[in-house]
Amino acid sequence: MAVPAPDLRHLTDDQIWDQLHGGMVDSDLHRQCVLQMRNSQRQAEAGQQLVQATGALVDATRRLAGATWALASMTGVLVLAAAAQVYAMFRWHA
């Protein structure tokens, strides 16, 4: 059975509090508040997990960037060594 959800968006916290405590504990308003509270809690937990996953992704990206710089540096050294060998070969064999 579907429970009609009252529109709480335009009410202040005090108005919601008064309506919630003015009715029965198992009223439609009480059910809606409990559902919204549970949904908010789940969203907060999911947000925290997203923050942790994003932090892990940032750390992995930093490590990947460091490895990329190391490989680029080694490539540069090898290019310089190859250029020196080519220069030496033409310089001394000419």
Task: Explain the overall architecture.
The protein is mainly alpha-helical. Helices cover 80% and strands 0% of the residues. The chain is built from two helices and no strands. It is rod-shaped, with a radius of gyration of 33 Å. The protein starts with 12 loop residues before the first helix and ends with a helix. The relative contact order is 0.06.
Brief digest:
The chain is mainly α. The chain has 2 helices and no strands.
Helix/strand-derived class? mainly alpha
Main β-sheet, in a few words?
Answer: none
Total of DSSP H or I helical runs spanning 4+ residues: 2
Helix-strand topology string: HH
What is the terminal-to-terminal distance? 95 Å
The radius of gyration over CA amounts to 33 Å
Strand content: under 5%
Low-confidence stretches: none
Helix content: over 70%
**Total strand segments:** 0
Name the overall outline.
rod-shaped
